[in-house]
Automatic annotation (TrEMBL):
Record flagged with keyword Cell inner membrane: no
Residue span of region Disordered: 367-388
The protein's name: R3H domain-containing nucleic acid-binding protein
Keyword tags: ATP-binding, Nucleotide-binding
Database matches in SUPFAM superfamilies: P-loop containing nucleoside triphosphate hydrolases, R3H domain
Family matches, as InterPro entries: AAA+_ATPase (IPR003593), P-loop_NTPase (IPR027417), PTPase_dom (IPR058670), R3H_AAA (IPR034081), R3H_dom (IPR001374), R3H_dom_sf (IPR036867), Spore_III_AA_AAA+_ATPase (IPR045735)
Organism: Floridaenema evergladense BLCC-F167
CDD domains: AAA, R3H_AAA
Record field: compositional bias (Polar residues): 368-379
Pfam families named in the record: PTPase (PF25516), R3H (PF01424), Spore_III_AA (PF19568)
PROSITE patterns: R3H
Segments forming domain R3H: 545-609
Amino acid sequence: MPIKMIDSNGTSQLNQQANPELTVSVKEVTVGTKLITDDLYNLLEILPAEIRLAVEQHPLKSTLIEVVLDLGRRPEARFPGKAEYLSEQPVSREDLNYCISRVGHFSGDNRAGIEQTLHRISAIRNRAGEIIGLTCRVGRAIFGTIGMIRDLVETGKSILMLGRPGVGKTTVLREIARVLADELGKRVVIIDTSNEIAGDGDIPHPAIGRARRMQVARPELQHQVMIEAVENHTPEVIVIDEIGTELEASAARTIAERGVQLVGTAHGNRIENLIKNPTLSDLVGGIQAVTLGDEEARRRGSQKTVLERKAPPTFEIAVEMLERERWVVHESTADTVDSLLRGRQPSLQVRTVNDAGEVKITRELPTNPISTHQPQSSPAWKPTGWRASGQMTPVSANKPEVFTEKQSFEQLLDASFQQQDAFKSDFGFAENEFMPGPNGEDLPLHIYPYGISRHQLDQVIDVLKLPVVLTKDLDGADAVLALRSHVKNHSKLRQISKARHIPIHTIKASTVAEITHGLQRMLHIDVGEVLDLPDLRLFTKNGSNDEIEALEEARLAVEQIVIPKGQPVELLPRSATVRKMQHELVEHYRLRSSSFGDEPNRRLRIYPA
């Protein structure tokens, strides 16, 4: 990466009185399209002469991250990817005292700074409270570092920056504050708990532009200062670094609900880390255990107690800073959290920037596992009636998985994140084998249903383990599945689909059989594979023994009499609900049936083709 040195005074000299033999300290560096200001000279001034000279003469000093001084150990300089000793002499107590006397006051979080710079000096104390170690971290103002997310900053939505320590969250926060204040003309207030964003001293560092800075007397008071900023200084934007306590998360929610844009950071590589962190989970909406009804649990194909998002997220957008030049953007934190809690991987937007400052946006499609959870059925039971004759093969009843109320919140959370093997179905989709969809797209196939029963669609997809995901967003759909009568009367749907090149597949009626055939056609699955042995769970409502027995009666009548012998068959009397299921099963075989007789002896008659 080309590096261009810039210094308005050519080669600026160090303080000659401090050490006349030392030479230049670079003030500004331009890397690609970014302007970096580090004020390295000010940090070097607090170091003992021998250590200062070693750093000044080091060829990698422009990339220095921090200098570590521990009592009785050799001084160490840390650079990206490596660390080097600066002297063979161990650090003495006099060396530490020399540094301590030249920095500002150490606050309650054992941090100090150098006035009007961004450098941070952190202390390690022994049990008696004496300082026995120092971490002298270089603070750099990097202008132009938010090019990857500038469009998000301008939306006015609250943004949460995530990343491991040292990835540059505070640097990005400082630049966002400057852009919002100077270039977008907004009233910006920075809550600077450790004076890390705007530097030490009463006068903030120029890197924050016109933004105002509120200092915090003690770290544990940060949440109070956040509320004070809103009540006293009428900000449009509040910038917060390192939200780390439940009180601060609660204060952030209060601020967001007052219509103020929030820009903050939190430690954690991914959103999953926040969801699993009970202290900070409120930033992404909070998590609660919910007990579902039987019908809803069956529709979802899940256990009855699940985890769901408690409220709208405090931060509408989340950015995961995986590396300095590679960020993952979640444009809707709510959608991402909902997907993760349901065991699905969200669609990820990855933004990278090259040496020339060009931003590249790509989307990583989720390897969405297709749920293989089977609906719960009744306990084991003995065959009766036709079933006892030996001519029929009983449908196996899966033993339900038992979930007790004693399951902990953590167990539920772990269960939500367990991803099942993708693309393993009865139709030969092997693990990690991506089969092309109807138009060449990768599976799973995202389908937008229109005018079709969502419950029946979920049932067909779940039972047959089809590589299909239902979506409520037409923009993200690969195809539309709709009732033929609805499409004829909905010109707008046809126009939108045509404009976006989304094919529309139609079915005659919203029945299990029609839906099954429609999905099979869309996936190019041979219908003959399932006509011989349909899965009776497709046609049940609650999976009871009576329903399964009635459906098996109809199946055997079709397969043993109507089709091979060409003779009509009358079934046993059933309720209206069960007869409807039998009608749908007969329709699956593309045969005709009708109900006759009076209640309670009304029954089904099946006719040959």
